Every structure is written in C-alpha cells, then in structure tokens.
Amino acid sequence: MYQITSAMKEYIKTIFSIEENGERAKTTELAKKLHVKPASVTEMTRKMGEMGLSYYKPYHQMKLTERGCDAATKILRRHRLLEKLFVDLLGLDAASACDEASKLELLLSDHTINRICAVFNHPTTCPCDKPIFSDERCCGR
Questions:
Q1: How far apart are CA 71 and CA 75, in angstroms?
Q2: Domain 76-141 classified CATH 1.10.10.10?
Q3: Inter-CA distances, 93 with 2, 55, 60, Å
Q4: CB-CB contact of 36 with 25 (8 Å)
C-alpha cells in the first residue's frame, strides 16, 4: 500500500482536473498551477510513477494511472462532501469551504465521510456543481 502525502494529493487533484477537462498535464502547466518550480514537478511525478500513481516520461505529459485516478476520485469525493457540509450546514462561502476541505480531506475516516454523504442523502454534486463520486460502501451509485 502507498501513503499519499499532502503534496502528492495536490498533484493528483490537479492532474485529474486537467485530464477531466480533456487536456494534457505538462510540467510547465503543473508548475504554474501548483506554484512550484518545474524541477519540483519532475521530482514529484517521478515519485508518483514509482508508486504506480502516474505515468511519466521525461519531457512529455504526465497521466494518472488507474490507481492514480482511483486515488483522485476518492480524494475529490471527500473534498466535495466536506464542501457540502461547510456550505449547507455551517454557511461558509464556497471559496472558504474549499480551503477548509483541502485541509481535512485526508484526515477523516471513510466511515465519517460516508456518514456526511448519508446525512445529505447521497448528493451527486457539490456546491460548485462538480460531481461527487460515489462509494459503493455508502451509496452504491
């Protein structure tokens, strides 16, 4: 099993978002979006490749593997359910909810995330109207 660090989480989410938009994740684009140097992107994507999370070929695009995509959807599910909780229950604005969700998305247990999902009747979208991915152990969608 692999341990996803907080920094890797940001790379995974960013690469997934780029791919979700039908674009290719390139070193320079990732560096710009993550506010890091291109050399840092190269090093992190190399590590992610060793962990089986991404495909990386120097001087080419990065692409998430199936394992990487699974990690991304799990992280984004957690993030978007936390956003829903913060906006709908606590009344935070979407930007603040997003910031807070990013801080907690890897810390809460699957059980707690699934309880949040159940409390909101298994929502399919977050406050930003992005899809909330399902978990067969929770909603079976």
A1: 6
A2: yes
A3: 34, 36, 38
A4: no
CA distance 53 to 103: 21
6-64: which CATH number, 3.40.50.970, 1.10.230.10, 1.10.10.10, 2.60.40.2470? 1.10.10.10
How far apart are the C-alpha atoms of 87 and 115, rounded to whole Å?
17
Burial grade of 49 (CB within 10 A; 0-12, 13-18, 19 or more): middle
- The string over 32-48, giving b where at least 16 C-beta atoms fall within 10 Å of a residue's C-beta and e elsewhere, is ebbebeeebbbebbebb
The mean pLDDT of the chain is 90
Q: Which residues of the chain are under the pLDDT cut of 70?
A: 1-2, 140-141
The reported pTM is 0.88
